[in-house]
Structure formats: C-alpha cells, structure tokens
Amino acid sequence: MVGTGAGPFSYAPAIALFPLAAFVISLVFGRQLPKKGAIPGIFATAASLLFSLWMFATVAGGETYHETLYEWSAGAVTTEVGAEEIAFSFGLLIDPLSALMLVIVSLVAFLVHVFSLGYMNDEGETGLPRYYASLGLFTFSMLAFVYADNLLMAFMFFELVGLCSYLLIGFWFRTKSAPSAAKKAFLVTRFGDYFFLIGVVAIASTFGTVAFAGEESFVVAAETAIEDGTTLFGFDAQTWVTITGLLVLGGVIGKSAQFPLHTWLPDAMEGPTTVSALIHAATMVAAGVYLVARMFGYYALSPTALSIIAFVGGFTALFAATMGVVKDDIKQVLAYSTISQYGYMMLGMGVGGYVAGVFHLMNHAFFKALLFLGSGAVIVLMHHEQDMWKMGGLKDKAPITYYTFLAGALALAGIVPFSGFWSKDEVLFDALIVGLEEPVILAAYAMGLLAVFFTGFYTFRMVFLTFHGEPRTETAEDPHGVGWSIKAPLVVLGLLAALVGFVNLAPIAKVAGMDITFLEYWLDGEYGYVEGLTYHHYHEMVAFEEGYIGSETTTMLLSAGLSLGLALAGAFAAHTLYNVPEPKRHTTKLGGAYTVLRNNYYQDEYQVWLAEGLTLPLARTADLFDRSVIDGAVDGVSGASLFGSSWVKRIQTGLVTNYAALIVAGFIALLLGLGLYGGWF
Amino acid sequence: MNDWIAIGALALVGLLIPLGMMAVSYLLRPTVPETSKRATYESGEIPTGGTRVRFNIQYYTVALLFLVFDIETVLLFPWAVVYLDAVESDSVSLLEILGPMLLFVAILLVGLAWAWRNGAVQWAQTPRQAAADSDRQ
Amino acid sequence: MAAYQLPQWAALAPALLLALTGLVLFLIDSISPRSTDRTLLAGTAAVGALASLAVAVWFTAAGVGTPTVDGGEGVIEIFDGQFVVDQLALYFMIVVTIVTALIVVASYDYLAGHTYQAEYYSLVVLAATGMATVAAANSLVTIFIALELTSLPSYALVAILKDNRGSVEAGLKYFLIGALSSAIFVYGISLVYGATGVLQLDSIAEVIADGGADGFGGLLGLGILMLLGGIAFKTASVPFHFWAPEAYEGAPAPISAFLSSASKAAGFVIAFRVFNVAFPLGEIGNVIGFDWTVAFVVLAIVTMTVGNFAAATQENVKRMLAYSSIGHAGYALIGLAGLSADGGELVMGAALMHLLVYGFMNTGAFLFVALAEHWGVGRTFEDYNGLSSQAPVACGAMAVFLFSLAGIPPFGGFFSKYFLFTGALQAATANTAMLAVAAALVVNSALSLYYYSRLVKALWIEDPPATRDRLGQPTGLYAAIVVAAVMTIVILPGFGPVAEAATGAAEALVN
User: N or C: which terminal CB in chain B sees fewer CB atoms within 10 Å?
Assistant: First the structure.
C-alpha cells in the first residue's frame, strides 16, 4: 500500500521544514523577537506535531508513503550483485515505524521548546537566538533522518544531528568543560560514524542501491544474494551482510552511546538540561537505535550481527547501570540510565524483538524526557545546583515536579503498571525465550536482568535523595518557584509515562487472551504497511530458535515476575538506605569497587590512553614523515626550481650584442640538431 | 666526397688570402714608428674634435621622406608605362586604372602633409619652437 | 548574407578599417599638430578598433570562411590568393582588435600629459593594421610586408617615452634584435623561394607535393628553420626571446600589453598558416627528412621552461609578466607541436583558444601594471603590497588575471590550458614526444602558480606601506581592466562558441 504524491502525504516534507524555517528565523531575526526565537520554535514544532499526528492518522487509515523527491546524482556502476546503475536521492518513507517516531520526536521537541521558556528565557540566559536556532536545526535533522527513505540520506542527517548536538552541548562555550564535552561528543560519535560511512559505501557498492524499502532496496537485494549463494567481495553473502551490517552498527554504537563508545554521553550533560532531554529522549541517542529498527530487515539476515547487537546491548545495560549507582549529580545518574536503557533497546532488537525494542524506544522517549525535564525543574528550584546531596525534601515544596518525576522514575525502574515495565518486560521476555536456545543471548539476558535491580536502586536513590528526607542546604529549604511553562510539559509527559505502556500489554494479552497488543499490530501492518517492513516479515527472517520454560505463558509470567521483583528489590534497597531524614553515603561498603565505579571503569582513561599513548605517537610519526620526506621533497623541488630560475635569469645580461650572439648560437644549435636529425649533412 | 667540402674549402681560402696578404706585408714593410701615423685619417687635415659627432635629426627625416617618394616613383613608373595602353583597351574602366594609383598617392600625401605639419621639412628651429617641441615626459 | 553582395576585397574590411583609422589620426594630427585632445584621439582609435572588431565578428557570424558545404560563404581569396580571408584570419583579427580596443581605452589615462598623443594612437592602429593583415596574408611576401608593418610601429612605440632611458634603450634593443630576426626571416623566404620557385603558400605546398623541391631538402629545411626563427622572434619564443623582457619592461605598459598579446598572436597566426598550408606534414617529411613538429616540440618545451623559470624569481612585476608571457608562448606552441599528418586540429584549436583567452588576461595584467605606473607606486612586488586596501576593484581584477594565467579552474585560462593538456595527451598517441610536452606543461603551470600567487599575496595579504598617497581612479584604465576581467570570467560560460570557432578555424587549416 504505497501511496503516491496525493493526499496528506504531499505535506509530509513540511514536518521537517517547519523547524528548519524556525532555525532560519531564529538565526536571522532572533535578536529582535520578543522571546529571542522561542516563539517560532514552539510554533514550528507544534505544527510539526500536528502534521505528524495527521500522518500517523493517515497511516492508521491504511496508507503509506514512499516517494523519491529529488535525485541529485545517478550513474552507471559495477556492483557485486550485478546492478548497473545507482541513484542517490532524497526521498520520504512514511510507514508505521517512521510515523510513530515522527510523533514522538515532534512531541518531545515541542515540549522541550515550551520547557525552554521557563528554563532558558526566565533564567536570563544569553545567546538565546543561537540556542533556539540550534534546537530548530536539531529537530529538523532528526525529523528528516526519521523519514529518510535511503541509507545515504539517513547518514547525512545522522551527521547533521551529530553537528547540532555538538553546537548544543557546547552552548555555554565560555566555560571550560562545555566545549570540551562538545568536542568529545563530536569526536567519539564521529569515530563510530566513520564505520557507518564505510558501511554505506560498502552497501552501495555491493548492491547498487541504498533504499530502505521496496523491491529495489538493499535489504531485498541482500536477501536474494543469500538465497542465490552469491559471493560478495570474496565472502559468502551472509558473512558480507554481517560485515556491512556491523560497519553501520559502528555509527549506531557511537550515537546510541553503547559500550565502548558511550563515554561521550555523561560528559554531554554539560549542555543545558533541555538539550539533554532532547538528545537522550528523542533525537541524537534515539537515532542509533532507530536506525537499527529502520534497517532491521538487513540485520535480521545475519544472526551473528543480531547476537552482537544483543550482547552489546545487554552488557551496556548492566555496565552503565552499575556506574549510575554511585553518581552524585542528578543529571549524571540520568545520563548513565540513558546508556543503560538504550542497552535494553539494543538487546530487544538483537534478539529479534523488533516490537519490544521500538516499544521501549517510545516509552523511554517519554519517561526520559520527563525525567530530564523534571531534573531541569529541580535544577531551577535549586538555583542551578545539581548535586543531589545538597537537595532533599523537595517533595512538599514542589509537588507537581515531585509527582511527575516519580511517575518517570517508576517507569524507568520498571514498576508495574508504568510504561517502562511493559516494554522492559517484553524485551527481557524476548531475550529469555531466545536465550533458552542460544547461550550467548542467555548471557545477555542475564546481564539485562541484573541491570533491572541496579536500575531500581539508582532510580530511587535519586528520587529519595532529591525529594525525600530533610532539606540539606539552605537553597533546598527555600527553592525557587517554577512557572507554567515548566509544569505543563511535566504534566503531559507524566501522564504519558504512566499510561503509554498500555498500548502493548503483551503479558495481559497472553494471559487473558485479549487483542490489546496495539503496537504490535501497528508495526505488523494491521493498519498501513510497506511491503517487507513488517514485524511479521522480520520475525520470519530472524533465524533464532525460541524455547520456553514450561508453556509460553509460564515463561512470560516467570520473566515478568523476576524483573518486577528485582526492580522492587532495588527500589526497596534504596528506600532502606536513603529514604531516611539524614541519608549517608554508604559508599565505603563498596570498598574498592566504589573507586572503580566512581571512575566509570576507567573507560575514559583507557580511551585517553588510546588517543595519547597510541594515536598521538603514530600521528607524530606521520607528521615527521610528512615534514621530512614529503615536505622535503616538495621543498627540494621548489628550491631546485628557484635555483634554476636564478640561473636562467642570468642569461639575460642586458647587452644587446650578447643577445644577438645567443640568438645566433641558439639558432645554429637548432639548425645543427635538426640538420643532423634530418640528414642534411 | 661530400658536396659541402667545396664550401669548406672556399671558407678556408677566404680566410687564408687576407691572412696571407697581411703576413707578406708584415714581412716586407720597414718599421718606422711615428705618432702621426696613429692619428685618425681625415683626408690629410689635422683631426678636430671627437669621432662621435651628433648629426641633426633632420638629416634622417629628410632622408626618410626622400626614400618614401623614391619608392613612390618606382611604383608610379611601371604604372605610367602601361597607362595609355590600359586607357585604350575596353576591358578595364578608367576608375579601375586611375583609382588605385590615386589612392596610393593620396595616402602618401596624407603622410607628407603630416610630416610637413610636424616640422619634418623645417630646416632650422628657433629657440621658441624648440621649447614648444620638447617632450614633457 | 544581405541581398547586396559585397565586393571580394571588402573581405579585408577589418584590416582596411584599421588602416583608415590610422590615416584619419594622421589627418587629425596634420590639422592640429601636437594635439592633446585625448578624447578625440583615443575615441577615434577606439571607434576604429571596435568597428573593425564588429566587422570581423559579423563576418564570422555571416559565415565568411566557413566551408560552403557547411552553409558558409567559403574562403575568400583576394589578389589572386595573396590574401585569404578564412576562419583563422577572422579569428585572429578578432583577437587583435579586441586587444587594440582595450589598449586604446586604457591609454587614454596612461598618456595624460604626453606630447606624442596622435603619433602614439596612429602607430598603435597601424601596428594593428599590420597584425590584421598578417592574419590574412597567404604569401611569404605579403606576410613579410605585413610583419614589417607590425614591427616598425612597435619599435617606435616601445621607445615613445623619449625622455625615459629605459624606454629608449628597450626600443633600441628591440629594434636591433628585430632587424636581425627580420633578416633571418627574409633570408628564409629567399631560401624557400629558391627551393620551390614560388612564394604563395598553397603553391609551395603544391610544388613540394609534386616533388619540385626534391633534392633541395637541406635548402628548404634551412629556409623553413629561418622562417621559424622569424616567427619565434614575433612570438617571443626561445631562443629569439631576448628582446622581450627588456622591451616589455621599458615600454609603456599598455604597449607591453599590446606586444605581448596582439603581436604575439600575429606571430602565431603566421606560424599556423605557413606551416600548415605551405609545408603540410607528411609530404614535407619526405623532402627535408623530418616533420617540423620536432622543432616545435623542442621549442615549446624550452620556451615554457625558460619563461616560467626565469619568471619565478623576478622582483619586478612587469618583468615577471614579460617572462610569463614567454612561458605562455611556449604553451601556445603546443598547438603546432601536437599536429600530425592525420589530424591534431583539437590541440591546435586549444592553442587558438588559449591565445584568445590570453588576449584578455595578459592584456588585463599588463594594464594593471599600467595602472600602477599611473599611480606611481613603484615597480617591484614589494611596491605593490596591500594595494587591495586602496583599490579593491582593480586588485580583484588583477587576482582574476593572475589566477587565470596560472590556470586556476573558475577562469578562462583554466579551460584553454586544460584543452591544451588533453589535446597534447591525445596527440601523444601519434607522437610520444608529446608526453614530454604535456608533462612540461603541468610542471611549468605548477611553477607559474608560485610567482603569480606571490603577486596576489602582495596585493591582498601584505600590509600597505604607511606612506602611500591616495590612489586615483582613472576611468579609461579602470574600464579596460574591468572589461578584461569580466571577459576572463564570462568567457567560461561562453566557451562553447569560442571553442567552436577555434576548432573550426583549426580544422579548416589542418585538413
């Protein structure tokens, strides 16, 4: 059901173009505008949201859209699978997945814009036009990335997203840490994107197409190649698909902050909290996982790639959760929770749980946006203090902030019936059933399960330290008030965090036998669908066996109970330790582990060592080579030329008799040379 | 035998003759050194002034004008010889016979007029004229 | 064409118009000697040059010289073939008249306060007449006469600053070397005449083809080589280039522009016509033992190299441009070096294009020097430091000229050089020596970028000296420079017709 240009879809480009217009307006006229560019941004994202909802409704009505808008290059090529031409274009693909993501992105962007009124404008920040312009560009890039219909366009906007995050993280560029964090975010993600680019080139040169969907897509081409047993670049087709898939995954790991490229994300907290909300919930970090979902059909062809995704995801989930336990800065805790949660999504995707992964992506977008905006509200309350040990007792002073934050925390920790529970449970269930047949996945599952406990612990540690107990500082006793522009987004997101999980109540559906797994139906093409991009199709392609403990329902209940129990255990542990009037640090109990966790497993240190100890000497050697050999050769040539020049110049003596003699001599030399050559003598 | 040997021989002989004559004269002549022998020969007169005398530029301009009209005459002459025959024949019109030569003479006349106006045939200049002529560059 | 068919001799109209303009200027000077009415004099000369240009363009558009099979008027022969008006002739008439017009306009300011105004303009126009005539000359005698008509006014023009020692010295040197070269050239003519018994170019070819020159190979070869010498003098190619740096440096800058652009083009048109028409490749090889392309290969490489190498370390801007002009002569020589018995019109077309583009960019560069002389800022690179802060428009135009001369992409010079390069590579299939020529072209272009950008750096990056007076904005010079700069840029989109005209002219000549 692929629509043509007619109908609502012809307005689809506007979704991305509104924020772009806001970017231009804020950049050019920002200084003169009353709210320094906030108004156009809010209106643009609101319009994007409306249009996205319209698209969503249209897709729900059974239509989809796949259209090439502009072809900027096409030419003949020789590819491995025999395609003879390739075209690079800009096009839109609106299927259930991208329609859903458009709504999420534009909603979060809209709320962040509104929140910014309270967080940035009311706090008297300078450079606001720059801020809103960057936000606009950021939203534009992400929206365009979401409905890109081919890998190259996706890559371009993926990069643009990275650039915008650089601009926004480094917004307070006069501090020392913000520019450094921005650079780090840029360089680390760029490191991943380097592999992504190679992957794009590899896919293009292998299949002669970079389209995501349709008969001409590289997914279909890869499927055909595997069926035909074609050899690609000297590899078995499936191996080659794995290799290229993993190359693209490099970009995903960088952007979605998976181990080992997660180090940029905690530092990125240097940006304004609103930016953190946008980056972590809906844009930059989500882009990585979304890309996996977008080209899931391709990964589904390679069990190896899927296993790697799952394992990296599971590992990251646990790894980041443990680090989140010892952080004092409220935003740092959230940062590690983001890394951890994206690990879950990767785990879900990696085990073939496409629906579970997307479900968690959606839920996470809402509750993480909520938590970040909530922490932003706390920061406003606390006069820009971020250390949780200096807070406490905010519960009574700011009830709306507290309850909405609590909703987000419950969702994050995965407590029933908040949204996070449903999706996390589904991820873990999918992992478990595959894990029963595949040991590697089982290990990933185990790590993911263990992380649930830590998640519950650090989440509630954060809640208790911030809101409960006695105020530990003067500012905490007398917090700064917050306005409607901060409260309204929190309320909207709080409701969503609490309720959005009900769109896919898989366990209840199984137990009660009801058809209430709406998200699954949505992604499975019950409404509108694009051929080859449905959950059903993916599920058939994934080669994993599934096993159960007892029956399917037993397994499911077991899994759900286990994860809920662990989450509650974590929350309870936090309650006993920190929900007291005068909480202690309790860090000494961890012993040496504390130091390791506090230093983030020395990830930064070893990466810095890699850069300074390994890359720098290499670069120095290259530089030395460049300066001595290359420059030497170049300088030598120029030196010889100039020396030759001064010599040639000397022929010109200024005496006309010499000239006459030289002319005659030259002429005679020519005459003799040619005469001998021609045999005149 | 290469044909060019003859040329080489000619060159050799051409060199040998003057050298031989100088050698013979050197051997035969008596040596009487005298200062007046070193003086510049000026038709028996005692030389006055240096050898580098500036000639009036007018010599050259007049000579050039003479050359121009000399050549004009050379070109006019054959034309004049065929002129009567051409007039009598019917194949060419009078304009075709007369035209080119009139044009040629007219061009020369423009040149002459210009040269005249610019003082090429002015025999001598008063100081006032000379001052007006000097280049300001 | 129009209903009224013009008489045959009217095909020479571009040259005749220039001659008429010269006479009118003489008349003006006769009526009021020592006239300093610059507007009248420069205006007359400019109108004459532009009228001539217009007629030449009109003729080209109307198809004069285009073969009749292509719907053109065919080649027009005048005076029993002593002159021919074909595409090549018209193409070079256009080049010459464009340069003349630019020079005349620019001289309006340059000659302010000069005594010999009328003489200057009439000499320029007469020299241009000679060049236009050269373009159409089809016999060794007419070529020689036209060439002398070009040369004699040039000698006087170089020395026209009579109170300037440099100018007079340059004029004398130019004259002496010119006399030597003319002697060699005319000697060459006599030898060719001796070997073949005819003077008209196509008749020479017929005699050679009929075997009439067999047995006189050495004589004919020597004659050809001497003709080459005379041409090399005109085009300022090694080893006959010695006059160029001195003459260009000493002469008034507009005259340097004139000599290095138009006069050089005139030299090349002789080369193209004489060697292609009178001594067709292949047949000539049987008589003199080798194809004359060998001589051009050697000359092209040596000329390029000497010109560019000598330019690299010059301190005087005008002298640098003089040497670069020698280098460019080397590039244009590739057009002859790359010919072969069965083609090569592409590389020759490229050389023609290069000469046209060169007519704009080199003239413009020398006119900028004229502007600098007008301002009196000095002559060395250092004296030009930071001029851009005071005269951004002119300096911008100069940067365009220099980058175009160096062959940097967005400008006309890049394309002509690029075509020369590809043409040379293509010719290498028939003549492997062309690979060396192509390599020399690349190496020398790279070197040339060094000294061109040195000047750009001086103009745009260096700081101006503190003690420099305000610079005027002479209208004529500015207009000429801006027009040249604009043409250097817009010739790029308009390259289609130019390339067509050039290759058409080359094709007609080669085949």
Answer: N
User: Mean pLDDT lowest for which of A128-142, A508-522, C142-156?
Assistant: A508-522
Interface touch C30/B137, C-beta < 8 Å: no
In a domain, B100, yes or no: yes
Contact flag C450-A662 (C-beta cutoff 8 Å): no
For residue B122, how many other CB atoms are within 10 A of its CB? 12
Q: Which residues of C451-470 are buried (b: 16+ CB within 10 A; e: fewer)?
A: bbbbbbebbbeeeeeeebee
Cis ω on the peptide bond leading into residue A40 (within 30° of 0)?
no
Distance separating the N- and C-terminal Cα atoms of chain B? 64
A77/A14 Cα distance (integer angstroms): 34
Q: What is the dihedral of CA B86, B87, B92, B94, to 10 degrees?
A: 130
The answer to whether A237 and A229 have CB atoms below 8 angstroms apart is yes
Contact: A670, C246; criterion CB under 8 Å:
no
Alpha helices by DSSP H, A582-681: 592-598, 603-609, 616-625, 631-651, 656-678
Q: Domain range spanning residue B63? A: 57-125
Q: Does residue C137 lie in a domain region?
A: no
In C, which residues are within 8 Å of B110 by CB distance?
A: 23, 26-27, 30
**pLDDT tens per residue, range C395-451:** 999 999 999 999 888 788 888 898 889 888 888 888 888 889 999 999 899 889 889
Gap between the Cα atoms of A342 and A364, Å rounded = 9
Is B72 domain-assigned? Answer: yes
Contact state of C289 with A638 under an 8 Å Cβ cutoff: no
Residues forming a β-bridge with C316: C380
In a domain, B136, yes or no: no
CA distance A152 to A155: 5
Kindly state whether residue B44 falls inside one of the protein's structural domains: no
Q: So what's the pLDDT on residue B123?
A: 67
Separation CA A269–CA A92 (nearest Å): 33
- Of residues C130 and B122, more confidently modeled: C130
Q: Is the dihedral of CA A651, A652, A658, A662 positive or negative?
A: positive
Q: Is residue C222 part of a domain?
A: no
B60 and chain C in contact, CB less than 8 A:
no
Assess if residue C341 is contained within a domain: yes
ipTM value: 0.88
pLDDT per residue as tens digits for the range A73-97: 777 777 777 677 788 888 888 888 8
CA distance A331 to A119: 15
Contacts (Cβ under 8 Å, ≥6 apart) of C325: C236, C244, C248, C260, C264, C307, C362
Q: Which residues 6+ apart lie within 8 Å of A148 measured at CB?
A: A90, A91, A92, A93, A154, A157, A212
**Chain B partners within 8 Å of C115 (Cβ):** 134-137
Domain ranges of chain A: 303-584, 605-678
Q: What is the pLDDT of residues C462-475, one digit of tens each?
A: 888 887 778 888 88
Is the predicted pLDDT of residue A5 greater than 70, yes or no? no
User: Chain B: nearest CA to C190, how far in angstroms?
Assistant: 19
Angle between helices A354-381 and A284-294 (to 10 degrees): 170
Question: CA angle C37-C43-C49, nearest 5°?
Answer: 140
A134 within 8 A of A283, measured Cβ to Cβ:
no
Number of domains in chain B: 1
Give the range of the structural domain holding residue C322, as residue numbers without chain letter.
292-511
Of A515, C35, C396, the closest CA to residue C387 belongs to C396
Nearest to C162 among B111, B132, B137 (CB): B137
In the predicted structure, residue C2 carries a pLDDT above the cut 60 = no
> How many whole angstroms separate alpha carbon B85 and alpha carbon A546?
123
Kindly tell me the sign of the dihedral angle through the C-alpha atoms of A537, A538, A543, A548. negative
- Residues in chain A within 8 Å Cβ distance of C250: none
Query: Distance between CA atoms of C63 and C53, rounded to whole angstroms?
Result: 15
Cα gap A240→A253, rounded to integer Å: 19
